[in-house]
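Key result, reporting period 2: structure in, sequence out.
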């Protein structure tokens, strides 16, 4: 296999699907405008507002529509240890005119690696927007930076924390939230962190390790289980060693059509969408289109992996066409490591290979070195990950209790068709959180999980595409007004093949039920969320 070469032009769509886009929101704002002018937007002034960080740039900018002016401040926090090298966590915070007392931190997916730009929509709505590279400066699917254990620790937990502290200090200072001139009586800065995949991991780690940093946390398809990447490696190794077990994209299209044909109605609405997590109910072997080795591949993906104690549950059968890009590869092995070639490996291989090199050395070749059938090998890998990415491996949901008891709110969401992180793992995590918190009812007072039908990893697929927007809207109301979300209504824009649709997403374990039912005698529009309601499974 050729050497790892990960140019930035690879996987642009994947970068999107890893949750690199910020969300937008349209909540009604609290009055929090400073009555006095904000300080000047320049390096010297910004530097005076913050301790423990070095400001490198500060300048007024405008949203692309030219309407909203904001002061963008860039800087870094110097870090040291546990490795011998020092490091820098680069950050930005953008401070708009028309500030509404809200601060939003952009959680980055994948390996982070760059300072994100603030979304215009959030700035126009009066959010101060912050983000950082989490202390890494590599491509989004390259974790080899972890060879430097200082960078590994920054990525795991310290980077988001120190940049949150610095940018919140800058926000408070810029808007003079410590002064008495605010109309906002509480002088409260409402702080939100939002991300998907690796970005969800960031929010989860913050809530666990630094529960005082945020008031509201959005966990989109969060990477919270080391078994997730171990399963990537296991599947990729199996395919490399057994190329005949590779499954073509065309076969996944056939499988998906068969799944929808047989399971569509099981959720109570014939709408071409499998709206429930269904882990059984279809036997791929019965379709007669897969060979025995291919059935083994499917079984591996559905089975998950055992870390010894913690289990990473496998993927449900929902919309498996996404499995080609993430798990199986669009072309059969052997794969080329040259991004210019079309026979590039699946994203899951890239993730597991680079993480393995980051953990065990740049020349480490997991395909040769790992035995995924050996419990000792699997648990050694997982344990090394825990030791290097401290507090960022397999999370214990009980560790969220401090954040929740302190008043913090969590909106968690996950696409049922997720092709990178199994929706079953978010369900597992939420159920275990409910156990630790003393039951579902109590847990739902501060943490809710919403499942989005048809959504691939963070975005894409036939389901709703603005779930992050709706989740932010919901958590703002929850944090600032105490109104917990009874459901989220998320939307899909019309496409060449599908009409516009709104979806009702219900707090787990509730499900969305179509009021028209399978027969739909009144001819209700299945594409309108108003015709769906939330109910517990046994109430239909
Ligand atoms: Ca259906």
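The corresponding designed sequence is given below.
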């Amino acid at each position: 296999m050729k050497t790892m070469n990960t140019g930035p032009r690879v996987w642009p769509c994947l970068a999107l699907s890893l949750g690199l886009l910020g969300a937008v929101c349209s909540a009604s704002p609290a009055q929090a405008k400073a009555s006095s002018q904000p300080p000047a937007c320049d390096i010297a002034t910004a530097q005076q507002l913050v301790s423990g960080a070095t400001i490198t740039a500060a300048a007024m900018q405008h949203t692309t529509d030219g309407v909203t002016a904001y002061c963008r401040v860039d800087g870094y926090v110097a870090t040291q240890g546990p490795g011998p090298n020092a490091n820098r966590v680069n950050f930005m915070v953008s401070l708009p005119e028309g500030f509404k007392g809200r601060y939003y931190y952009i959680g980055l997916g994948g390996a982070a690696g760059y300072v994100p730009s603030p979304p215009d929509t959030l700035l126009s709505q009066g959010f101060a927007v912050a983000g950082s590279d989490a202390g890494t400066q590599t491509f989004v699917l390259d974790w080899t930076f972890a060879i430097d254990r200082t960078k590994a620790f920054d990525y795991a937990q310290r980077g988001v924390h120190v940049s949150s502290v610095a940018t919140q200090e800058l926000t408070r200072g810029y808007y003079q939230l410590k002064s008495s001139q605010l109309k906002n009586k509480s002088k409260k800065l409402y702080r939100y962190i939002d991300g998907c995949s690796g970005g969800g991991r960031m929010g989860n780690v913050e809530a666990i390790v630094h529960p005082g940093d945020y008031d509201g946390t959005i966990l989109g398809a969060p990477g919270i289980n080391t078994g997730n990447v171990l399963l990537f490696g296991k599947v990729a190794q199996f395919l490399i060693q057994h190329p005949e077990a590779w499954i073509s994209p065309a076969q996944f299209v056939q499988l998906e059509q068969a799944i929808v044909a047989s399971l569509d109605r099981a959720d109570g609405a014939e709408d071409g969408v499998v709206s429930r997590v269904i882990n059984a109910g279809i036997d791929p072997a019965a379709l007669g289109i897969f060979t025995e080795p291919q059935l083994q591949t499917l079984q591996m993906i559905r089975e998950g992996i055992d870390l010894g104690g913690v289990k990473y549950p496998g993927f449900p059968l929902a919309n498996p066409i996404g499995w080609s890009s993430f798990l199986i590869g669009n072309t059969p092995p052997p794969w080329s490591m040259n991004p210019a070639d079309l026979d590039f490996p699946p994203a899951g291989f890239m993730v597991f290979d680079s993480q393995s090199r980051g953990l065990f050395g740049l020349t480490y070749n997991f395909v040769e070195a790992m035995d995924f059938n050996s419990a000792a090998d699997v648990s050694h890998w997982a344990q090394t990950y825990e030791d290097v990415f401290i507090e960022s491996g397999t999370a214990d949901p009980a560790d969220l209790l401090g954040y929740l008891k302190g008043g913090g709110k969590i909106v968690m969401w996950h696409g049922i068709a997720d092709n990178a992180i199994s929706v079953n793992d978010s369900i597992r995590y939420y159920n275990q959180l409910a156990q630790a918190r003393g039951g579902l009812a109590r847990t739902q007072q501060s943490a809710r999980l919403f499942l989005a039908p048809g959504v691939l990893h963070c975005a894409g697929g036939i389901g709703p595409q603005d779930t992050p927007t709706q989740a932010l809207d919901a958590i703002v109301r929850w944090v600032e007004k105490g109104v917990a979300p009874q459901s989220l209504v998320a939307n899909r824009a019309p496409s060449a093949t599908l009409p516009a649709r709104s979806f009702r997403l219900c707090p787990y374990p509730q499900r969305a039920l179509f009021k028209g039912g399978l027969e739909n005698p009144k001819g209700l529009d299945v594409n309108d969320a108003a015709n769906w309601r939330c109910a517990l499974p046994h109430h239909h």
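DSSP finds 16 helices and 15 strands in the chain. Residues 149-174 form the longest helix (26 residues). This case is discussed further under Risks and Mitigation.
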